[in-house]
Design brief:
Helix 10 runs antiparallel to helix 12. The longest helix is centred in the last third of the chain and has 17 residues. The chain has 12 helices and 10 strands. By secondary structure, the protein is α+β, with helices and mostly antiparallel strands. Among the domains are: 124 residues, Spore Coat Polysaccharide Biosynthesis Protein SpsA, Chain A (Alpha-Beta Complex); 98 residues, no CATH class. It catalyses: [1,4-alpha-D-glucosyl](n)-L-tyrosyl-[glycogenin] + UDP-alpha-D-glucose = [1,4-alpha-D-glucosyl](n+1)-L-tyrosyl-[glycogenin] + UDP + H(+); L-tyrosyl-[glycogenin] + UDP-alpha-D-glucose = alpha-D-glucosyl-L-tyrosyl-[glycogenin] + UDP + H(+). It comes from Stomoxys calcitrans. Its main location: cytoplasm. It holds the Pfam family Glyco_transf_8.
Length: 332
């Protein structure tokens, strides 16, 4: 992966993870994973550059933003949920080892009011909102995609002027269920206003990134490399897409208006209740067939094959659990 990144970027620098380990304040956001965002402080150590623009990995640039380099440190856009604070997903800064050391020292002494990098940087650059209006970037440079954070009428009015879209929050484009056969993303209702922009993210991914992924890569990159567009899904793709859809459910991102609508769920329940239970002999034959079948499973994001072994239950136990097993099987 590092070699692939070097083909695209001028500098690929590996850094150590920095974690705030502030579980109490992170709990207020219900985002325990944000502690490691302290790692972005390493960006001040890129001293070979005079000025930089930091972008979170969940941002999508929609228009040229070169003019940001005309801004001074520390320039950022207001956070939509508390505009007197800035959002740390996009900011202009000057690399400096001295600044890095001071921020780390400040973090050790005072911590972060939200447990993540945004709280820390807002405390360190505390005069951002009042010292110089030129350091207050227009919101168009850091527009939040999530509907609950977004002023929808304004989003509709100014969407053609958006420079950078930020997928802030738990749901990221790569966690949204994507149908590889139809090349369409199943966008949750909370993101329906940005449906075309999420689709754009996936189009960019497959046009410019997917072809660079290889099956020997680990984790999500290796799993995504096996997707084939516009073709009938392979068992590996079915397993991956099932995993991603389940992950959406578990994170609370349910497609209530589409595939996961009440209508479709009720239809599946009716189909289950109307179907006839298998005869004991047929069920035993099915169990024997399953016992010799290989299943595709996911371990740590990697697709692997594993023999599926089952022990056939007694006829009495099978009869007692027939309905429950059928419903469970159809909803897995």
């Amino acid at each position: 992966m590092r070699a692939k990144l070097k083909d695209v970027y001028n500098v690929v620098q590996e850094v150590n993870v920095m974690d705030s380990q502030d579980s109490a304040n992170l709990a207020l956001l219900s985002r325990p994973e944000l502690g490691v965002t302290f790692t972005k402080l390493h960006c001040w150590r890129l001293v070979q550059f005079e000025k930089c623009v930091f972008l979170d990995a969940d941002t999508l640039i929609l228009q040229n933003c070169d003019e940001l380099f005309e801004r001074e440190e520390f320039s950022a856009a207001p956070d939509v949920s508390w505009p007197d604070c800035f959002n740390s997903g996009v900011f202009v800064y000057k690399p400096s080892q001295a600044t890095f050391d001071k921020i780390v020292e400040f973090a050790v002494k005072y911590g972060s009011f939200d447990g993540g990098d945004q709280g820390l940087l807002n405390q360190y650059f505390a005069d951002w909102a009042t010292s110089d209006i030129r350091k207050r970037l227009p919101f168009l440079y850091n527009v939040t995609a999530y509907a609950s954070y977004c002023y929808l009428p304004a989003f509709k009015q100014f969407r053609d002027k958006i420079k950078i879209l930020h997928f802030a929050g738990k749901m990221k484009p790569w966690l949204i269920h994507f149908n590889s056969q139809s090349r369409v993303a199943s966008v949750p209702s909370d993101y329906s206003h940005a449906n075309d922009l999420i689709q754009l993210w996936w189009n960019i991914f497959f046009d410019h990134v997917h072809g660079q992924l290889t099956t020997n890569m680990v984790g999500l990159a290796g799993a995504l490399s096996q997707l084939r567009l516009g073709e009938q899904r392979t068992p590996e793709q079915e397993a991956y897409e099932h995993m991603m859809r389940r992950q959406c459910w578990e994170s609370g991102q349910v497609d209530y208006m589409g595939r996961d609508s009440f209508e479709n769920i009720w239809k599946r329940i009716q189909q289950t209740m109307d179907s006839k239970p298998q005869a004991p002999a047929a069920a035993a034959a099915e169990d024997e067939k399953k016992a010799s079948t290989n299943l595709i499973i996911l371990k740590n994001g990697d697709l692997v094959w594993q023999p599926h072994q089952t022990q056939a239950p007694s006829n009495a136990a099978r009869q007692r659990k027939t309905t429950k097993q059928r419903i469970s099987h159809r909803f897995k």
